[in-house]
Amino acid sequence: MHELIEKICTRHAIRRFQPRQLDEGTLSEILTAGLYAPSAGNNQYSRIVVCQDKEVNLKLGQLSRYMMFKGKDPASTAHSISADQPSIQDDFTILDGFYGAPTVLTIFTRPGQYAHDDAAMIAENIMLAAHFLGVGSCYIGRTEEVFATGYGMEKRKEWGVPDDMLPVCNLLLGYRDGPEPHAKPRKEGRVIRV
After folding, report:
1. End-to-end CA distance of the chain
2. CATH label of the domain that carries residue 125
3. 3-state percent helix, strand, coil for the chain, nearest multiple of 5
4. Which of 67, 136, 175, 182 pairs with 12 at a CA distance of 20 to 30 A?
5. 116, exposed or middle or buried, with CB in 10 Å at 0-12, 13-18, 19+?
6. Nearest 5 degrees, angle CA 23-CA 24-CA 29?
7. Which domain holds residue 132?
8. Angstrom distance (rounded) from CA 62 to CA 97
9. Going by C-beta distance under 8 Å and a sequence separation of 6 or more, which residues neighbour residue 102?
10. What does the DSSP assignment read for 11-55?
11. Parallel, antiparallel, or unpaired: how do β-strands 47-51 and 166-174 relate?
12. Is residue 108 classed exposed, middle or buried when 0-12, 13-18 and 19+ CB atoms within 10 A define those classes?
């Protein structure tokens, strides 16, 4: 297997992070990879907000967890995600939906037909670049709901994000704490050749 393909196949969602922050050189390379992602019509309209403020990330992570369950009993909506890297659906004692990641990215883009596509391409480039550089990552949805809260709107304004931009996703970045997750088998029959 080609080294590039092997790296792609060994990337996993990381939800246990060491407290140490990414060094600037590594973060810069990861962000550059994100900026070189394709965008619809080469619009390059998306923005990546980098937050390394522990208190802000914790508050946003708590809101993200809340949005996952919205007052419902977590046990009634949860399902097993990962024994290696438990999610908020696996372990109800995890109250931070950002899992203590030292760096949290929020991808904002122009609303419209390709908003989620543009953000997903940026996210994939970032997660793969992070893995290549020895940094763990995890994609988190629910971002639009989080930034619709009073706290989310306050942060967005403070960060100078234009009002016409849609918050699509968060990416957690940090050095993995603990062993590397084991690979889960791929389901059969997902490729249809015609």
Report:
1. 25
2. 3.40.109.10
3. 40, 15, 45
4. 67
5. middle
6. 105
7. 3-174
8. 6
9. 17, 18, 19, 20, 21, 22, 52, 54, 57, 173, 174
10. --B---B-SPPPPHHHHHHHHHHHHTS--GGG----EEEEE--HH
11. unpaired
12. buried
Helices marked H in the chain — which ranges?
A: 3-9, 24-35, 54-69, 74-77, 115-132, 143-146, 150-159
**Is residue 28 domain-resident?**
yes
- Answer whether residue 23 is part of any domain: yes
Judging by beta carbons within 10 Å of its beta carbon (0-12, 13-18, 19+), is residue 175 exposed, middle or buried? middle
What's the gap between Cα 71 and its chain centre? 23
What is the length of the chain?
A: 194
**Which residue bears the tokens 């246990």?**
16
Question: Given a cut of 70, is residue 78 above it in pLDDT?
Answer: no
Q: What percent of the chain has pLDDT over 90?
A: 74
Tell me whether residue 105 is in a domain: yes
Is 43 inside a domain boundary? Answer: yes
Number of structural domains in the chain: 1
Two structure tokens written together for 126: 């970032």
Contact (CB, 8 A) for 103 and 52: yes
* 22: nearest Cα among 139, 136, 125: 136
pTM of this prediction exceeds 0.90? yes
Q: Comparing 23-32, 109-118, 122-131, which segment has the lowest mean pLDDT?
A: 109-118
Distance from C-alpha of 28 to C-alpha of 131, rounded to nearest angstrom: 14
